[in-house]
Design goal:
heterodimer; A: 112 residues; 0% helix; B: 115 residues; mainly beta; four-stranded antiparallel beta sheet; 12 strands
C-alpha cells in the first residue's frame, strides 16, 4: 500500500502568519509521530498520537505549536504566528503500536 | 534523559573503501537501537536495527552490533558504493518507562562516496 504522505512538500511563509502541515499515515497504523529536522538541532521529537489522543506533547517547542488527529488517521500540525526559527523540515511517521516507524518525505517550511 | 552521539562528519570516501560511523548512546535500561538513512531528496528509511545486547543488525552490506558494555552501535560497511551517499542517523527507542515509542536521534552523518 501507499506510504506516509505529507503536504505540502514545501511551504514558504512570512513571519507572523499561521501554517498548517498535513500528514496521511499508512492505513491501519494507530500510532503517529511528528518530528522536526533543523540545522544544528538534528531530528527532534514533537508529539505522539495513539489513535486520536496525544499522550505525549512534550516536544512541542512552544504554545504556538499544536496538532490534532481525526478519525485515527490524518493529522494536522499547526504553527501560529510563525517565527524564523520555525524554519525546518517537519517529518511525520506512523507505525503499528510500538513497531517500526515509517517516515513521510517531510514538509520543508521556510519562514521569511 | 536519553541521548545519542554520532560522528557528525562529513565523511568522504572513495568507492570500495571501508566505512565506520561511530554511535554511542545514553539511556536507562535496554533500549532498541537503529540506523536510519536519508538519501538525497527522499524520506528517512530504516536501514537496520538491534533490540538487545550483542544483536547484530544487517542490511544492504551494512552491519552494526549492539554493545551494551561500551553503549555503542557503530555502523560499518566493508566496501561502499557511490549509491551509499546519504545522511545516516543513529537512533534509540527506550524500552522502559512510558516513552517506549519515540525515537531519539543523533545529529546525522553525511557520507559522500566518490567514484
Amino acid at each position: 500500500g501507499a506510504g506516509v504522505s505529507q503536504s505540502p512538500s514545501n511551504k514558504v511563509t512570512e513571519k507572523g502568519k499561521d501554517v498548517e502541515l498535513r500528514c496521511d499515515p499508512i492505513s491501519g497504523h494507530t500510532a503517529l509521530y511528528w518530528y522536526r529536522q533543523s540545522l544544528g538541532q538534528g531530528l527532534e521529537f514533537l508529539i505522539y498520537f495513539q489513535g486520536n489522543s496525544a499522550p505525549d506533547k512534550s516536544g512541542l517547542p512552544s504554545d504556538r505549536f499544536s496538532a490534532e488527529r481525526t478519525g485515527g488517521s490524518v493529522s494536522t500540525l499547526t504553527i501560529q504566528r510563525t517565527q524564523q526559527e520555525d524554519s525546518a523540515v517537519y517529518l511525520c511517521a506512523s507505525s503499528r503500536l510500538n513497531n517500526e516507524q515509517f517516515f513521510g518525505p517531510g514538509t520543508r517550511l521556510t519562514v521569511l | 534523559g536519553d541521548s545519542v552521539t554520532q560522528m557528525e562528519g562529513p565523511v568522504t570516501l572513495s568507492e570500495e573503501a571501508f566505512l565506520t560511523i561511530n554511535c554511542t548512546y545514553t539511556a536507562t535500561g535496554y533500549p532498541s537501537l537503529f540506523w536510519y538513512v536519508q538519501y538525497p531528496g527522499e524520506g528517512l528509511q530504516l536501514l537496520l536495527k538491534a533490540t538487545k545486547a550483542d544483536d547484530k543488525g544487517s542490511n544492504k552490506g551494512f552491519e552494526a552490533t549492539y554493545r551494551k558494555e561500551t553503549t555503542s552501535f557503530h555502523l560499518e560497511k566493508g566496501s561502499v558504493q557511490v549509491s551509499d551517499s546519504a545522511v545516516y542517523f543513529c537512533a534509540l527507542r527506550s524500552n522502559s518507562g512510558g516513552s517506549n515509542y519515540k525515537l531519539t536521534f543523533g545529529k546525522g552523518t553525511l557520507l559522500t562516496v566518490n567514484p
